[in-house]
Amino acid sequence: MVSEGAAGRSTRTPRAEGALRTIAADQDSPERVRRVLEQALVFAGAAFAALYRPGADGELLYLAESAGLPRTLCGVRDSYPVAGRAPVAEAHRGRPVWLGPQDLAAQPQSRRVPSSDFFLAALPVRGDGGGCLLAISESPLGFDPEDRACLGLVADALAVPAPPAAADGGEPPPGGFSLAMDTGRVRVGDGLLELFGLGPDDFDGRVESLLSLTVPEDLPSLMSVVEADHMTIGDRELEFRVLRPAGPPRWLRLRGRLVPGGEGRPARLVGSVVDASTLRSDITDVARVQRLAAALATAVTVRDVGKAVVAALRRPLRADRIALAELEGERLVVTVLDPPEPEDWPELWRAEWRTEWPDAPVRTMPTLAAALREGRAAIWPAGSPLETALAEVGPGGLAVLPLPAGNRMVGACLIGWDTPHDFGPDERALLTAAAGLAGQALMRARAFDAEHELVGMLQRQLLPRRLPRLPGAIAVARYLPSTAGLELGGDWYDVIPLPDNHVALVIGDVQGHSAGAATLMGQLRTALRAYAVEGHPPDVVVSHANRLLMDMETDLFATCCYVDVDLEQGSAWCVRAGHLPPVLRHPDGSTEIAEAEGGPPLGVVRQSDFPMSPLGLRRGTLVALTTDGLVESPESDIDEGLERFAGQLSAADPTPLGPVADALLGKAPRSDDVALLLMRYDGMASRPLRESWTVWRVPQAVGHARRFTRRTLRSWGVTADMDAALLVVSELVTNALVHTEGQVRLDITLVNDRLRLAVADASPRTPAKPTSIGWGATGGRGILLVEAVSAAWGTLPVSGGKQVWAEFVLRD
User: Fold this and answer.
1) Which of 192, 439, 444, 618 measures 20 to 30 Å from 260, CA to CA?
2) Same domain? 371 vs 512
3) Taking every annotated instance into account, which residue ranges of this chain make up the domain PAC (predicted)?
4) What is the pTM of this model?
5) CA-CA distance, 810 to 212, in Å (whole number)?
């Protein structure tokens, strides 16, 4: 067969012979057949080359290996009948076949191999069970005599017995694997499990067990390999990362080919996996770009993008300096420098140094400005005439990569070498691809930074700036944003002072991490505060907030825990809406996770119950409310985290409350937002005296109210300001009876030396103080009298109405 092209022998045929002889000497290489086929591409001008071998049933010829174009583009099938009239079957029976486009078009459709204007060659493979070499050329002249001679050499080289593979059920070679496509069972060679960090006893033979150890971002590309419909036989290679117990993920490289099945035999994916870090340092440009893309996929800030570019380019390119800068108007603001020391950069850069990194006007570097205008990577070898600011960055060679995003430039990357550097075509292509990836990532990072600043501002404005001072209690709160993605979310807390020495402790979490979640958090916090101040009980407050969220027609929901604490009695009522229960630390150091019934999250079910659960507080009891970011992590579920939180609270000294909160947050996983609210109940030094009277609508109602007030004050030992207090009661009760309908209630409270008189009615209308009253007016003086004789007065909205109050500072 070699003699067919002997007359036209040139230097190409001897070179092919030498290459094939070198490949044949390595009989143990699992890649020998593929490397032999690749010589048909190099020396015979083929666009596709494949080896077909007869199956165990002897009825079909199966595609064993291929190189070049994907077989689907050439119309090549996985198998052909041995007894058929297809070119591969004819060649297997010993007759070489040479067909052009017209010959292929004249054949029946069922026998056509390529589906375009290709030239086809099918040559028999002698020995080793037979088979044939199939080659396809896209050249307009097809295979010339020397091409045919080189194909004959390739066919002869394929006749040498191939090393055993796992496609027929044998054991994989070292570092290799064999995956059954129908069951997902995989056999692995020695050393492959070690790359995944598994021992022989830890592996169950399922491919899913190996896939679960990969970095999630790399899983989609890896899954495409194990799906037969997406595999091109013999031409798949990719790099991926596997997680390790300690340290960064490990890069592995996979090469695989799909071997079709036969009668009673499934298709199998066979190949090898090696540690990419042990390969040659000048890895392929595709692998470099793949690694850069993987790193940029997880970069969320501008600084992260710069670090990813430096890590992906400096070492492989053996560069001495890399700078990545944002373009802001006419200034170039550097975000990452490697090396970071100022003395390693030109004088102009040091003169423009600002805090951590420098920035400089683009006009001071005209060459750089021109490169940014053109938008293409610019490369200058050693000795190029450049301005000093650029020449000193790379005296041995300089590459400037404008970073495009959309229709504009968002930055630039400068790469410099100290010694003369030779820029090859592959390196130029790598730099261009890297610039495109970095530009898009930089644009995403800038948008993310802007959103982060916006959400941060919202968070700072919507959370309480300071907590109120409480009678008989101390409260502290902490908030920490997540470090995963750096987005602020909807966690919030609030401390709401209420009448009669009550206080509401509120903590909640809006679903999601965005400006929308932070805005909704602010709306909910305001609504809960308004409902609480109106005087509603805890279950009604939460129920109103739930209906409000349902009416807002948002896709987000929220969880909430609301605790109403009576600071006089040392008791509390708790309402939960899908949130964690409070944790109580008792004075003896024991802790208790409150058994408080819970309702669904807010915004899920319109008609839902939010039951109230009682909490008993003793002096020194610490009430802790938190969000799930503090107690939940990928390593443990929320119940375990809550028990761990209770243990940490038990070991803490609650006397200085601020350090306790800081210590608890110091152990937070920070994979989510964290809000923490602590209140230590110390008890009130002096408990207020309280009495109430329901005013009946009878002619003597005002007199009854005055007599009740006089008896109450005398029983408390109050004699000063008696007349003024009785006057205020008369005016407030009269106004309520005359101007409102429904129930009227008189409340009297004495706290130390302050006497408070309050009348509640069912009208929400606030009494107005007249601006002027004529001598002949018969009314309108009541509020003026109240203002004149009391130290302070005002109104409060209460559930279904209002409360008008006045206070006196009692004289000794």
Assistant:
1) 192
2) no
3) 236-288
4) 0.46
5) 75
